Amino acid sequence: MGEEDYYLELCERPVQFEKANPVNCVFFDEANKQVFAVRSGGATGVVVKGPDDRNPISFRMDDKGEVKCIKFSLENKILAVQRTSKTVDFCNFIPDNSQLEYTQECKTKNANILGFCWTSSTEIVFITDQGIEFYQVLPEKRSLKLLKSHNLNVNWYMYCPESAVILLSTTVLENVLQPFHFRFPPKQAGTMSKLPKFEIELPAAPKSTKPSLSERDIAMATIYGQLYVLFLRHHSRTSNSTGAEVVLYHLPREGACKKMHILKLNRTGKFALNVVDNLVVVHHQDTETSVIFDIKLRGEFDGSVTFHHPVLPARSIQPYQIPITGPAAVTSQSPVPCKLYSSSWIVFQPDIIISASQGYLWNLQVKLEPIVNLLPDKGRLMDFLLQRKECKMVILSVCSQMLSESDRASLPVIATVFDKLNHEYKKYLDAEQSYAMAVEAGQSRSSPLLKRPVRTQAVLDQSDVYTHVLSAFVEKKEMPHKFVIAVLMEYIRSLNQFQIAVQHYLHELVIKTLVQHNLFYMLHQFLQYHVLSDSKPLACLLLSLESFYPPAHQLSLDMLKRLSTANDEIVEVLLSKHQVLAALRFIRGIGGHDNISARKFLDAAKQTEDNMLFYTIFRFFEQRNQRLRGSPNFTPGEHCEEHVAFFKQIFGDQALMRPTTF
């Protein structure tokens, strides 16, 4: 299998830590994404490493018994360590605060602490088998203050730090889940609110066995900005399907939890879940492969839930070489291949894979380039790519590929792709416009929620498509010109359909392509029926085509008039484009040639470095002087002395016009 076929990979720079062994215990904190390596209960050292901080935190602590759980508060301000089922110990890591340990016992009598979660830099939740206790830590006083508690029987718990939601498993079957949400108003103590509880439907089990919900089969993750509880159901409830499936329950901030999506795995065995770039990744240990699901892609809706199949065929994660580091890294030693899908792998949400036995923490990543060839349906491919974070260059390469000789797509497919791109582009333009209007109306001060829309990589504007796709495409000699023009017009049609103002350089590209192939009749039709929108740059381009196609002159002037352009402005535009003769013809056409400045035109003619053009313009003004004043000479007020000298230098004195005498 070539490298171009793997669409999942482990990150290049993993977090490395001391391997788990009888002396060294390894813990992972999902909130800070930190790995703790605790040697001999901390007496011979604790090393803390996170994905972002390349400088690990190292410290020692007294060995007061086996460490069950160890985590820093957010911002690494306070360390919490659980060693018994009744208490949690704290130690400040804030400068100028006492480093002496202080302890908090759980409030509920006879309760055992299952674990704890930091929800902010100074707030912590104890989860016991009899409920939940929410505390504020006061580091300067070395004590804790109970903010709120709630009693219920708890089997196990799960925490999603991104959305600050804790899920508690209750009841004998363990399948009734009770969520709690934590909020942190600025400069106030956090709040804990109870969300509606919900039940996970367990698969039917033989009478002899008692079904129950295992913590192993549940995950919580944010997908497309919404919180979901993912349940790995090993045997479908429908008797005719034996494969496992992942059921997604949407957990909103307000209202009840609802079953929304079912991901069909079509296989059985051991699975693990990750979420990467809003994709649900399901790893299958038996076959050592993974599949991805995208809940934004169209699935089969049965009236209540949407069924999804894997977006792509199952593939292994890209083979990974463990880099050799340290003094042993001799050049002759080759990197060691890493055992993928190892039974020692532990998966955490959203995208973390830890191998405690090898001492590595990786982030799982999606590679988009291989997907282009694995998903032949271009419309579906675009729907998929437009939702990915790093999609821009891949989308542009897909557009170039579908316009290449070897992989040429049909016009309806090209139209679909352009429409999908412009749909995203239009959404962004509308959001920008709404934001600008709100700012103008002064709403930004009254509404702090008003935020400037973020331009994601899915927003491909006209300059992106022009620069990376169309300008190279029209240069391809082997392409039939009718196809080239059809593609350009398809892109313009799509922009018009979404009411996006077409930039003049796209119209110029169409005109240049038409002229190149002598398709003047088509150009005339496009202009006559306003397929190409009026603009000053376009009018100038038409004027420059007069020598190839005489009617272009009149088409251009008509366009400038429709644009209500002032005559002198038209002249300025033409002169700036070095269209000196066209400017002169235009002025003659409207009868203003007796009043124009000779110097302005001679300046422009000289700048073109075309001596014959300069001769023609100079001779025109000599003839005008003769007609108006009876002499071809320029008056001092016209300031044309340097141009007369230049004319003599190039053509000689004898070329000057002699006064006509009767």
Give a verbal description of the structure.
The chain is of the alpha+beta class and 662 residues long. Strand 16 and strand 17 (176-183) form a beta hairpin. The strands form 8 sheets. Strands 20-21-22-23-28-27 form a 6-stranded mixed beta sheet, with no helix packed on it. Strands 1, 2, 31, 32 and 33 form a 5-stranded antiparallel beta sheet that branches. Strands 15, 16, 17, 18 and 19 form a 5-stranded antiparallel beta sheet that branches. The mean pLDDT is 86.
Distance between the termini: 95 Å
Rg over CA atoms: 37 Å
Overall number of strands:
33
Query: What structural category arises from helix and sheet content?
Result: alpha+beta
Task: State the low-pLDDT regions, or none.
Answer: none
The best one-word shape is elongated
**Kindly state the mean pLDDT as a whole number?**
86
Strand order of the largest sheet: 20-21-22-23-28-27
Indicate the percent of residues in helices: 25-40%
Beta-strand fraction estimate: 15-25%
Main beta-sheet strand count, sense and barrel state: 6 strands, mixed
Q: Given the structure, what is the number of helices?
A: 16
